[in-house]
Write a structure and sequence with these properties.
The protein is α+β, with helices and mostly antiparallel strands. The protein contains ten helices and four strands; from the N terminus they run ααααααααβαβαββ. The protein has a four-stranded mixed beta sheet.
Length: 418
């Protein structure tokens, strides 16, 4: 510890009288008091710990500004935004509310229609998925059917025994696949009815949305919400119309396909029974006759491109050359292949042609023998008619009649083209 040394007073101070010394002492005490007050009010930055404990300053943090936060690349602890006033769907415009927070009547109506529209869009999406699934099922069914039919045709092409049981079993499987295809057409028709109901619902929503514009008590937000719903409904209507068009095309195409293959399957059954391949059904033609533009073949009471039908086909057949003559001079003559070839070529030349089947019985012998022969000839002509029907020729395009001939030596069936 360093002890202070007493400094000698100047000579002038030593010579001052005692009155001056007292004044100097008072001034020294005053200066020391001022120093104490200044330290209490404004503490020194480098003061002691005792002075800091006596008067510690109040610290207040100021949050940084947005510019400072962006410059530092950080995030400010900003208060969370206030919750939205509406509870509508995501992406939907807000509906109007009254000052008290209550939704307007038009806003409630717009929100209800948006909910109904959401349900409708979900139903339409479900219908579209069902169409795709049905198409996939139809493709798989058609592939199985054609695989079976191709196997039968290949076996018949190289030759096989009549009534081959293996081919009969394959034909039964093919018929089952065709029935399954017909069931798919029924499902498509049912789905078309459901899509039609969706179209009616979309039309109702569109009319209701447009009518809501004229309701009183709405604000601008309500009309914006109605406009959004109207746009969504219009887009949904376009999707529904596209689904209906696709369904109608699928139903028409699949119905035609099933009918054509049913005819082919009948012809294939006849081919399996005989053990020889005929071909596709006679009614499966991709083209038809078109009447000339001048209308020359048109006859009163007769469709264009066709000949007038005689009252009795047997009388109308007089003077005409038959397309096919089938003689039943022995039991079960093999006539199906020749009949199919002749009728098929005739349909290639005239797709709309009709056919007259005339049962010809010999007129020799007594009256009872002639009547018995006519009955037998008619029964044989009905057999030929069933064969043509099995080959795919519609029954409404065939007529049947009977006659007698003195030149015939056995029962015959004549087929004429009309």
């Amino acid at each position: 510890m360093i002890e202070p040394t007493a400094l000698p007073l100047p000579h002038a101070a030593r010579t001052l009288p005692w009155r001056n010394v007292g004044i100097a002492a008072v001034l020294a005490l005053s200066l020391s008091g001022c120093n104490y007050m200044s330290e209490a009010l404004w503490p020194s930055l480098g003061g002691s710990s005792s002075s800091a404990a006596k008067a510690e300053p109040v610290r207040q943090e100021i949050p940084p500004s947005k510019a400072e936060v962006q410059a530092q690349g950080g995030t400010s602890a900003a208060p969370a935004p206030a919750p939205s006033r509406t509870t509508g769907a995501i992406g939907a415009p807000d509906t109007g509310r009254l000052p008290g927070g209550q939704m307007t009547a038009v806003g409630q109506r717009a929100q209800q229609m948006r909910t109904e529209l959401t349900n409708l869009q979900g139903a339409v999406a479900q219908r579209a998925g069902a169409i795709q699934q049905m198409r996939a099922d139809t493709v798989a069914t058609a592939q199985r059917y054609f695989n079976l039919v191709a196997g039968i045709n290949a076996r018949l092409q190289v030759g096989t025994t009549p009534g081959n049981p293996i081919l009969q079993a394959q034909w039964t499987q093919a018929a089952g696949e065709l029935d399954r295809l017909s069931a798919e057409i029924g499902r498509l028709s049912q789905l078309s009815s459901q899509v039609s109901s969706d179209a009616a619902m979309a039309a109702f929503l569109l009319d209701s949305t447009r009518a809501a514009y004229s309701l009183s008590g709405a604000v601008e937000e309500d009309h914006r919400a109605l406009a959004s719903v109207e746009d969504e409904v219009n887009r949904t209507v376009v999707s529904i119309d596209r689904l209906l068009n696709e369904l109608n095309e699928d139903i028409g195409r699949q119905s035609t396909y099933a009918a054509r293959e049913r005819s082919n399957l009948n012809a294939l059954s006849l081919a399996i029974r005989n053990g020889e391949l005929f071909g596709s059904g006679l009614n499966n033609r991709a083209f038809t006759n078109v009447a000339p533009a001048d209308g020359s073949p048109a006859i009163l009471g007769v469709a264009p491109g066709q000949q007038p039908q005689a009252a009795n086909p047997a009388q109308g057949a007089a003077g005409r050359r038959p397309l096919v003559v089938i003689r039943f001079d022995r039991a079960n003559p093999a006539y199906e292949q020749a009949l199919y070839t002749a009728v098929s070529r005739a349909l290639e030349r005239a797709p709309n042609a009709n056919f007259d089947l005339v049962a010809v019985a010999p007129s020799r012998g007594g009256q009872s023998q002639a009547a018995l022969a006519a009955t037998t000839a008619r029964r044989q002509a009905e057999t030929v008619m069933r064969s043509l029907s099995d080959m795919g020729l519609p029954a409404q395009r065939m007529t049947l009649s009977t006659t007698t001939s003195g030149q015939a030596t056995s029962n015959e069936v004549h087929v004429y083209v009309r």
